Amino acid sequence: MIAVLFDFSGTLFRIESTESWLRGTLAETGIALPEAEITAAATALEVAGALPGGANPVRVPEELAGRWATRDESAELHRATYTGLSRQVPLPDPRLYDRLYDRHRSPSAWQPYPDAAEVLRALRERGIGVGIVSNIGWDLRPVFREHGLDPYVDTYALSYEHGVQKPDPRLFALACESLGADPRQTLMVGDDRRADGGAAALGCGVHFVDHLPVTERPDGLLAVLDLVDGARENAAGK
Questions:
Q1: Same domain, yes or no, for 134 and 221?
Q2: How many domains does the chain have?
Q3: How far apart are CA 142 and CA 156, in angstroms?
Q4: Which of 68, 93, 179, 188 is most buried as measured by Cβ atoms within 10 A of its Cβ?
Q5: pTM, to two decimals
Q6: Pick from 75, 49, 71, 73: which is nearest to 60 by CA?
């Protein structure tokens, strides 16, 4: 195993809660709402699936169904889809829809899982190449830089930069090529069995973690180190 690929959202990082997202945006725009209205709006936004990286929509509106399927293939599609979902919820100021979208891209809206730094650092110490393969509509590199994890990442394969999204094996292939890694000696780590499982079509190993709140998954990534060490021992024994 000479390389490890990681998903971003729900794997290495977790987005803030929908209520925190809404409250933060209201504070940034100087808009005050009664507590009951904030709670009701946050619940409605959660149901709508308006927070990227959060819960999926309970129901995708018919007019957004086509965009939803390909939302991660460009920055324009991603913004249009998620602002379209948030607009299903009445809010007191029309500026809020774009401001909500902008907030979710800020590094402060994301928190790394407790063991993310430890695992990435250990892989670097072992000389293992690391890539990030993410379905996303914006540049997540600043999130890694702000949280001190960028030095441990060798390459990023982001769907919106290539016009292709997981589970299409081409996105994983781009990451492997950038790392100079044989897919058959590469492990993909993610939380989405359909999207991240697409790496198996290239011959990559695949390991899944649970998409849980940060406080509920303190050590879900540590198994990656055992898998890498086991693979290296097996290769050395051949």
A1: yes
A2: 2
A3: 12
A4: 188
A5: 0.95
A6: 49
Quote the CA–CA distance of 84 and 236 in Å, as a whole number. Answer: 53
Name the residue range of residue 35's domain: 15-108
Residues in contact with 135: Cβ distance below 8 Å, sequence separation at least 6, in sequence order: 72, 159, 165, 166, 195
Look at residue 87 and give its three-state secondary structure.
coil
Cα gap 131→140, rounded to integer Å? 13
Mark which of 108, 141, 162 sits at the end of a domain: 108
Nearest to 108 by CA among 48, 21, 23, 175: 21
What CATH number has the domain bearing residue 202? 3.40.50.1000
Summarize pLDDT for 90-140 with one digit per residue, the tens.
Answer: 999 999 999 999 999 999 999 999 999 999 999 999 999 999 999 999 999
Residue with tokens 């800020």: 106
The Cα diameter of the chain in Å comes to 67
Q: Cis before residue 151, ω within 30 degrees of 0? A: no
